Structure formats: structure tokens, C-alpha cells
Amino acid sequence: MALFTRTKRNAAPAGTTTPAAAPVADPTFAALTGDYTIDPAHSSIGFTVRHAMVTNVRGTFGEHEGVLHLDGTDPARSTATLDIKTAAIDTGIADRDAHLRSADFFDAEAFPLMSFRSTAAEQISGDRFRITGDLTIKDVTKPLTIDLDFHGSATDVYGAERVGFEGRAEILRSEWGLTWNAALEAGGVMVSDKVKLTFDISAVRG
Q1: What secondary structure does DSSP assign to 125-152, as a single string?
Q2: Contact 22, 9 (CB under 8 A)
Q3: Which of 11, 46, 103, 167 is placed for a possible disulfide with 148 were both Cys, Cβ 3.0 to 4.6 Å?
Q4: Number of neighbouring beta carbons within 10 Å of residue 12
Q5: What tens digit of pLDDT does each residue of 80-102 get?
Q6: Nearest one of 199, 194, 137, 192 to 168, comparing CA atoms
């Protein structure tokens, strides 16, 4: 995750121009540099997909783990890894979840994990960041870009140092081989190709 660089500019004398100042690390953010483990009990990986052309189905993946390396002095060196257990999908309907675990979709028995490995990161503005990496679902790996909002840092009641992020991305599931569908009599299909992903992340230092 591309973290924690703020740009500071000094005013130029009237009638003169100066090149933009180099980014200067914010000392508050620089102090957060380190390795963090995603806390699955206080994090959520979710998705939304259009169903039958008229409504949305929402779900989560209840089991996941990941590691963040935050570098406040050189944001481009910040990284993230995330592994998600495909069998832990939960949309609130047991039969639908069983279908999603089947070979029609995730084939969770053959491919128990989907994974994300970051390859680049940048600050967009203020506390908004963007991370790019490789998303692997089943045996297909393609690039994914996640937009992130940094929600701050805190020491919890147990003395753990935490950081929080909220992220969002969109994919076309067919690009990862998730192509099952059914045609509707009135036109259209049962499940949209576009899937919206959401990430609510709380990570603990150390």
C-alpha cells in the first residue's frame, strides 16, 4: 500500500518560479512504518453482484489472512499480501453458497485459496491511496487495482497498534474463468459479470 507521503511546497518570490519540492515524509505517517498483520476478527472482505438484473446479492469471505508492510518514508516500498479461503464464502443462503463453492464458480475443493500480491502502490491525494497487484482465482492470475482510504491509526485497549483502511475494486468475473450463468426468459442473465469488491481492513503491528 502506497502510504504516507505528503508534499510540501515553499512559496516562491513574486515573479519567479521554482520546481516542485520533492515529497517530504509526514512524521506522523513515518512513525507507522513497519509490518502489520491483518486482524480477521475486525476485518471484512466482501462483494456485491447483480442478480436476475433487478437486485444485488452481497456476501463475504469469512476466513482470510494477510500481511502489510507500510513504509512511511518511501511509500513505493509498501506492500500487501492477502489470502482468502474460497470455501468460506457466505451470502446468507446455504444452497447458493454451496453452488458458489462448486466447480461452476470457485471450485473450492480444487482451489481452496484466492490470493492477492501487490506489485505497485501510490498516493492519490490526502489519505487516498491506490495499490496494484496480481489477483489469482482458481488457476488464473490477472492484475487488480484497489482504491484505498486510510482511516487512521490507534492503540487499542490491549496495547496493540492498529491501522485501518477501506478499499474498493471492480472485476469482471469472466476474466478469471468464473463464467457460469443462466439466461432469463425476459432477457438478460441470472448473474452479472461485474463484481464489486470491498475491503474493510484492521491490521496490527508486529
Answers
A1: ETTEEEEEEEEEETTEEEEEEEEEEEEE
A2: no
A3: 167
A4: 10
A5: 999 999 999 999 999 999 999 99
A6: 199
